[in-house]
Amino acid sequence: MDQRSRPRHPVRIAVAAAIGLLLLIAIGLVVETALGPKQKPDLSPPTPIPLPGGSSVPPSPVPTPRPALAGPLQVIQGRQLVNGVYLGYPHSMQGAVSAAVEFMTQIGSSLDPDRAAAVLRLTADPSYASGPQDFANGAVSERRDLSLPASGEVPAGASVVLEPAEYQAWAVNTGQVTVLLLADDVITLPDLSTQTRVGVYPLRMHWAQGDWKILRPDPAAAYSFLSAAPGSPQAAADGWKELTP
After folding, report:
1. Helical segments of the chain, H only
2. How far apart are CA 14 and CA 4, in angstroms?
3. CB of 177 closer than 8 Å to CB of 96
4. 24 is a domain residue
């Protein structure tokens, strides 16, 4: 019988198929190694900033265009310490940004609704009468988001610390500016490891009564698309400028 017409042995066919499959797997591993390990993205949002009505996610992604900024800004301290909050900043861009850093750090580093209300009673613009209650509601919402009791003492071992690192200035007008802060939000919860998240925190600042004050947040502005690791090339490309002590 002509050998060319002999049927192939089924065992040899199976061996050849297995070898081919192993080669495909090996090639896949080489490609995956070259592209780097796959990582599951962290989709958890940053700790919310309190907005009127307890909302922490503004609806519109289109903010007001911002002007170009010269570079890093040195944060200065207010002239007067009242109830743990520094007040009394100069009527300048440095004063507005420094006030925003102080106020947002105070608000974002507490889970106590009464403390949030107290800070706003000192820092809210006269036109923003609901500020203390709005930010107190925001603290309550944040506690719920972290699965903490909405009222009463903060449980032992639970804390939040906001650490602004970079800034941008938007919608600059006479006596008014929206200060964006790029900050690390360090969250510690009982029996859980500490987490650090990055967030963009806006404050609309207005010069009133001889100092910078907080205006009602603009519900039509959103800035989360500017979130980036502080100090990274992406942050620089997005226009973030360093805050220096």
Report:
1. 10-35, 93-108, 113-123, 131-145, 233-237
2. 20
3. yes
4. no
> What are 184-201's pLDDT values in tens digits?
999 999 988 899 999 999
State the CATH number of the domain containing residue 125.
3.10.450
Residue 13 lies in a domain: no
Q: Considering the entire predicted model, what is its pTM?
A: 0.73
Q: Cα–Cα–Cα angle for 245, 142, 228, nearest 5°?
A: 45
14 domain residue, yes or no: no
> Residue 105 class from Cβ within 10 Å (0-12 exposed, 13-18 middle, 19+ buried)?
buried
Q: Is 73 helix (H, G, I), strand (E, B) or coil?
A: strand
Q: How many residues does the chain have?
A: 245
Q: Tens digits of per-residue pLDDT, 144-188?
A: 999 999 988 998 999 999 999 999 999 998 899 999 999 999 999
Does some domain include residue 20? Answer: no
Count how many domains the chain has: 1
Q: Tokens 């996610």 map to which residue?
A: 57
Q: Which helix (H) or strand (E) holds 214?
A: strand 211-214
Tell whether the model's pLDDT for residue 46 goes beyond 80: no
Domain assignment of residue 157, given as a range: 63-244
